[in-house]
Amino acid sequence: MNPLIRLDRQFVWHPFTQMRDWLKQKPILIVSGRGATVRDVTGRDYLDANASIWTNLHGHRHPKINAAIQRQLGKIAHSSALGFANEPASVLAGRLVAAANPASKKKPHRLGKVFYSDDGSTALEVALKLAYEFTRRTRGPKSRPQFLSLQGAYHGDTIGAVSLGHIDLFHRAYGGMLFPTSKAMAPYCYRCPFNRAKPERADARHYRKCQWECVGQVEKKFSAQKKRGNPYAAFVFEPLMQGAAGMIPQPAGWLRQVTDIARRHGALLIADEVMTGFGRTGVTGQDKDSAIPKTDPLPVTAPLFATGRAGVTPDFLCVAKGLTGGYLPMAATLTSQKVFDAFLGGYEEFKTFFHGHSFTGNQLGAAAALASLDLLQTKQSVLQRARLQKCLHQELQTLWPLPQVGDIRQVGLVAGIELVKDWRTRAPFELRERAGIRVCEAMARRGVLTRPIGNVIALMPPYCTTPDQLRRMVGALREAVTEALASSGTISGSTSRAKT
Q1: Which residues pair with 116 in a beta bridge?
Q2: Most buried of the four, 124, 136, 226, 397, by CB within 10 Å?
Q3: Does 108 reside within a domain?
């Protein structure tokens, strides 16, 4: 056994991993990477099909980000943000504010202040605490701020973030530690009880038959809470695509409708863009839901945030993961001047926001983030992302002949492929059958790495991925489904009708 693997088995406890199963197998131990490829300790190369758990935007060892970090190391790696400012964090805050406020947006909810933290969980924790205290200061100290999030929500693993979550598998064990929050129906078109459409070989958003009952359910939640005399303080959501819920996309127009409802009821909007931020959800000039550029030449501008694509300006915008291009742990919570002003006062009033992190606004992370933003906002990068999402859409169509593929959901450069026993019935695999895990293991044997979300296979390639590499990713998935799940149905193209 390789000595590094031996050390891992002896000492390391891996996240979201059943360690009994882990200790039975020989793990893939990554030692290097370049572009969209990583290499293990044996020298074998793999395609990184989920961008190192949704973080690595530009690929591994990008020369411009490497150089930015090296330049910063020649100055200083880190100094405290408690009582001191620093150069790259100050510049980055200005760049984030500019990116989060397209020129066409009006000022009432403009995001103008940046609070740095460490990761997605802490970015949500910051927003939660700020919204809670802002509500108490504006509605009165006796108010009891309540929060509404979506069914299947996952917003991180700190106690506040877990309280906002509604995935029993992850959160049930900590119920005794959490504060109560409400959940609203998510627009899961493929399994929506209000969708009267029979299964087709297409994204369920495109053939759904409903009357926007999911929007009505959100309205009912807000109205019921208002009748209790304690309107919701904030509505928390992932815009356009819910990640850990199973890559659940929102049909066009849903987000605008429900955020308008929240505004009418006086609720703040907390947008969790930890996964969807920094170009993940697509470029401009695209079709209704499929995120496919319509014309050539391709568009040369693109909103960096899903809320920008949806035409929604939140009161809190939480970012992490891709903020530094996947290089260093860093997060930020953007908010408005109105929220900021509620925490201003004399020293003796103790209106300070009493929250912080040792590595808040650290120089290395900020330097990497600035280099990543420089790359994202070039014409070349936008064109590359547009072409890649179009290629991804085309390649995903080759999966429809598989009877175990029930739904294919794509928003920009995020895709979720839901596995079922038979597409005609939508019958799900039981978790104990480990369908998603088996498929991902078969993909790894073919040199492609990703991680399932239950029975959903996530594909989220780095932006530097070539069309040939993307074809290999999807091809490995296609072969893996056939290998791992062939006994669940018959592979046949004659019964499929793929919509492009």
Answers
A1: 332
A2: 124
A3: yes
